[in-house]
Design a protein that fits this description.
- This is DEAD/DEAH box helicase.
- Keywords: ATP-binding, Helicase, Hydrolase, Nucleotide-binding.
- GO terms for molecular function: helicase activity.
- By secondary structure, this protein is of the alpha/beta class.
- It contains 23 helices and 29 strands.
- A seven-stranded mixed β-sheet has the order 1-9-16-15-12-14-13, with helices on both faces. A seven-stranded parallel β-sheet has the order 4-5-3-6-7-2-8, sandwiched between helices.
- Strand 13, helix 12 and strand 14 form a beta-alpha-beta unit.
Length: about 750
């Protein structure tokens, strides 16, 4: 990794090693558990582990929010296993956002060799014949919110004995529960609490989180309970070198074209190749499934050119792989058979990776919490570590590699979730009613006034029926509610000639990723989509290695439904409210691989999608724009460029990703009758991101203006105002006009 001294590095942060602080084993810790820990080389707990464990043992709800590799597992294993050993009838439940994490936790708990605990994973991969045994005999069930929601709570009568004796609920990696997913999980937890209470159980909640802005508040919103935070990390940590890396500009293909920046995927592939050649065990995090496949494929090819056969020591890992493939990759990485892995964030929360030397982060992962979670995968054995953030050609990435103070020495973001979202609350109340009639006393558990309004609306619509004993679900089947907010069942990708299932793509991404003619990558092999059958949720593909890539294009319309809040700043208005968004993928471009040359644009016939959500928007009077130097013919390009950059910079102040949000700009919107820029949450009912943007508008738009003005390009590029998901092909865009628009808005907002 000698390249770190070369030009692409914009900043190097060196974090010194830290020694740890031990605590005594609590007096209540079972001797058998202490002995098992000592056999593993754990002489005594770190101070934060002992503090969290003692609070939980006393029956206080607690969140342990410390860094990656700080040993949070022992903080909850100690009180949970102590209770299970002390009371042979007690049970415990463990929730993780990823199956891999639950499987890893099972290995850890089983490794203690404690009698009669009988830990078991209960998820979609659990064989039917094993499920009855787990319900009847396991005292420590490890699962995920999806299985709790779909499999356990609807059949709670069969879990009655387990729920009656439920002593602890562990919610691991709780910072992952954000946005719509987090809002759904908050209600799943409330449903669990309600049913446990029905059978006489009253569990203590223990949450584990990466460091976050306000872990106690986030944990309280997730559980609906008062939670105490333990945040002082007492574990030792090896020294870390953290480099910020901006890929270099390449000379333009033609004299009249602007220079383009080398892709972050190619830079990551080169760095991963160098790392594997030098024997450095390295994990490369890549934002997209397709990107992870590309990095792995390019790295394998480069390695085989250097040393034939060395490419076999690199693989890709992502969600959507079949269970058997995921488990085999995890085994190979842990055993050292693989030296390099290109992964999506499926491994950010996954298996306990010990002994990694370096982490490459291809593109800012959207939040500082995720950045540190990913970087923390290096050096977990206590040795020194290297982390490199490789910037994509994107406004936020460019801003961060030139403003290191926005990353280092700052607290991470607060986790954003909104359990009162009516598109989450209503369906979850239907789920609760289908499990057991909702009583008036239950409404406080689900949010009080919003819950009462939602129940009344559901009763009026016929989904619930009011009886003296409560509200009853009126249908025979269970409500069909998707926790992930993906808008339907995942689409299966099937090879036409063999019928082989290659993987799955979430419904929300299928129009753009699996339209007829789209190029789909799986384990480095290219396939082209023959047909997308939305009714049966299947995409049929054939293997092909085209010399072009595909890029979907869409059109969007937006109507204002209502205004929640606004700021009247004279010629500028700032608004927060509900909007209706209609979006349709209408065509796709084929672009030559390497040069990016557009070969052609082909039409598509896909249905429009409608979304009611929450948006933040600002209006500027035409006179104010002209006073700022933007003439009317340039209004569309200036507003469009400001919209793109604002979307790109929003993750700086909210726990979101630019793919979680959308936008629209217009020189004269019919509902505002003024030049307007909208930024909206890409989920029904909103996810809390627009509210955060409204609250932090000056900080958000100020950083947006600075990012555009500081970019070295002349007319606009992907580092400032171009967007990879623009449905209009990034046309028109006016970079200097965007700066003028934002300066006018900021001046008026004060």
């Amino acid at each position: 990794m000698s390249q770190l001294s070369s030009q692409p590095v914009t900043h190097v942060e060196r974090m010194p090693a830290r020694s740890g602080t031990r605590a005594e084993w609590p007096s209540w810790a079972p001797s058998s558990f202490v002995a098992a820990c000592r056999e593993r080389g754990i002489a005594a707990p770190w101070a934060h582990q002992a503090a969290a464990a003692s609070l939980a043992f006393e029956g206080k709800h607690v969140v342990l929010a410390t860094g990656t590799g700080s040993g949070k597992s022992l903080g909850y294993q100690l009180p949970v296993l102590a209770r299970l050993l002390e009371d042979p009838r007690a049970t415990a439940l463990y929730l993780a956002p990823a199956k891999a994490l639950a499987a890893d936790q099972l290995r850890s708990v089983a490794g203690f060799g404690l009698p009669d605990v009988r830990p078991a994973t209960y998820d979609g991969d659990t064989a039917r014949e094993e499920r009855d045994w787990i319900r009847q005999h396991s005292r420590f069930v490890l699962t995920n919110p999806d299985m709790l929601h779909h499999g356990m709570l609807p059949g709670h009568e069969r879990w009655a004995s387990f729920l009656r004796r439920l002593s602890y609920v562990v919610i691991d990696e709780c910072h992952a529960y954000r946005g719509v997913f987090g809002s759904h999980v908050a209600h799943v937890v409330r449903r669990l609490r309600r049913l446990a209470a029905r059978y006489g159980g009253s569990p203590t909640f223990i949450l584990a989180s990466a460091t976050s802005g306000d872990p106690a508040d986030a944990a309280s919103r997730l559980t609906g309970l008062p939670v105490t935070a333990v945040t002082e990390d007492a574990s030792p940590h090896g020294a870390m070198t953290f480099a910020l890396w901006e890929p270099p500009l390449l000379p333009p293909a033609e004299d009249d074209l602007p220079p383009v920046r080398r892709s972050a995927l190619r830079e990551t592939s080169d760095l991963l190749t160098d790392a594997v050649v030098s024997g450095t065990r390295t994990l490369a995090f890549v934002r997209s499934r397709r990107g992870a496949e590309v990095v792995a494929a390019v790295t394998r090819r480069q390695l085989d050119e250097a040393v034939p056969g060395l490419g076999d020591r690199v693989a890709a890992y992502r969600a959507g792989y079949l269970k058997e493939d995921r488990r085999e990759l995890e085994r190979q990485l842990l055993s050292g058979e693989l030296l390099g892995l290109a992964s999506t964030n499926a491994l950010e929360l996954g298996v306990d990776l010990v002994g990694l030397d370096a982490v490459l982060i291809c593109g800012y992962p959207g939040t500082r919490a995720s950045l540190w979670q990913q970087a923390g995968r290096a050096g977990r054995a206590g040795g020194s570590a290297l982390a490199v953030l490789i910037a994509r050609d994107d406004p936020l990435d460019t801003y961060l590699v030139h403003h290191p103070s926005a990353l280092f020495g700052r607290p991470v973001e607060a986790t954003v979730l909104d359990p009162a979202n009516p598109y989450v609350l209503g369906p979850q109340l239907c789920c609760a009613a289908s499990e057991s009639p909702i009583t008036a006393a239950d409404l406080d558990l689900f949010g009080g006034t919003p819950a009462k309004a939602a129940v009344d609306g559901l009763t009026e619509a016929g989904a619930l029926r009011r009886r003296p004993s409560g509200w009853y679900w009126t249908h025979t089947g269970r409500p069909d509610v998707d926790l992930r907010g993906t808008g339907g069942a995942p689409v299966s990708v099937v090879e036409s000639s063999t019928g082989r299932l290659l993987g799955t793509v979430d419904a929300g991404s299928s129009h753009a990723m699996l339209h007829t003619g789209a190029v789909y990558l799986h384990q480095g092999v290219s396939f082209v989509v023959d047909e997308l059958d939305l009714e049966d949720a299947v995409a049929l593909v054939h293997q092909e290695e085209p010399d072009w890539s595909t890029h979907a294009r869409d059109v969007t319309d937006l109507a204002v439904v209502g205004v929640r809040s606004y700021v009247d700043a004279g010629p500028v208005g700032l608004f927060l409210g509900e909007v209706d968004v209609t979006n349709q993928v209408v065509s796709y471009q084929r672009r030559r691989i390497g040069s990016g040359e557009v070969i052609d644009t082909r039409p598509l016939d896909l249905p429009a999608r409608e979304l009611r959500t929450v948006a933040v928007w600002f209006t500027v009077s035409p006179r104010a724009l002209e006073n700022a130097g933007v003439v009317p013919p340039d209004f569309p390009g200036a507003l469009h460029a400001a919209e793109h950059a604002a979307i790109g910079l929003l993750p700086l102040i909210a726990t979101c990703d630019r793919w979680d949000i959308g936008g629209l700009s217009t020189a004269n919107h019919p509902d505002t009758e003024a030049p307007t820029v909208f930024v909206y949450d890409g989920h029904p009912g909103g996810a809390g991101f627009a509210e955060r943007a409204y609250e932090k508008a000056a900080e958000w738009l100020g950083a947006t203006r600075e990012a555009i003005a500081a970019c070295a390009c002349e007319t606009g590029c992907p580092s400032c105002v171009q967007s990879p998901k623009c449905g209009n092909g990034n046309n028109p865009l006016d970079k200097s006009g965007a700066v003028s628009v934002l300066e006018a808005v900021l001046a008026a907002l004060g």
